[in-house]
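Below is our example:
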Amino acid sequence: MMNHDLYKKLAEILPKEDILLDEYLKNHMYTRLGGKADYFVTPESYEQVQQIVKLVNRENIAFTLLGNGSNLIIKDDGIRGIVMNLKRLNNIHVDETSLVAQSGARIIDASRKALEAKLTGLEFACGIPGSVGGALYMNAGAYGGEIKDVLEHAIVVTKEGELLKLAADELDLSYRTSNIPTNGYIVLEANFSLEAGDYEAIKTVMDDLTFKRESKQPLEYPSCGSVFKRPPGYFAGKLIQDSGLQGTQIGGAEVSTKHAGFIVNKNKATSQEYIDLIHFVQKTVKEKFNVNLEREVRIICENGKYM
């Protein structure tokens, strides 16, 4: 049931078209999974983000920040309270050898903008489907490169609604993690330090990485990317493949026949079907090889907490 007082307060911060009620999150997530958000808000300025955070604190309202969900499963019962998405903050611009990208921009688009400006360093990101904010959140990486290699600084909003400029080393970026979730930061902007390069050489690398990605990954279906972290001494995809699990389905979710490390949303899967298949894969690999597969994909619950 709509809280008219809360809606009124949100409408004092945002245009009404930026406030959606009982909105299915699967409509906004790369995975096409997830139930409803009570309030789905899409601010258009840093000040609006700050005002929403301060409102949340004053009113003691449940609050969740979501990117485009390329590495996230939202459960079928949705998320209560206010869910914020920064997709309208998507500007990217170049200043000499610095590339500045707002958090709602796709990291793929940031890599393409670097190519246009003949800047090298972001080639590895040309196939990562997440947002810039999400890429910083988990120190995204591929093909030997990662965000921490090129990040100069970031602008964030704190849990109290204050703006901070933080150097890359203040974010504790390491393998698929950072201190952004621990500190409750909301990334607004990333400044990448790149180097001048040759357009054709940069394009050749990006074309090669794109070919590798398209030939090996099941991009024809929604998915959450690589589901599991690489276990020490093994490859998750090889273990799953050698367990005979490719093509295994639970409901509309399937272990990809193209790349065993991916679970695809083949036919309107529910989040629960997806999660059940993850558990089945983990159980089978443990039984066959005595290896524990740790999830790389995150699962978010109704209260906004991660499993």
Remarks:
- The mean pLDDT is 94.
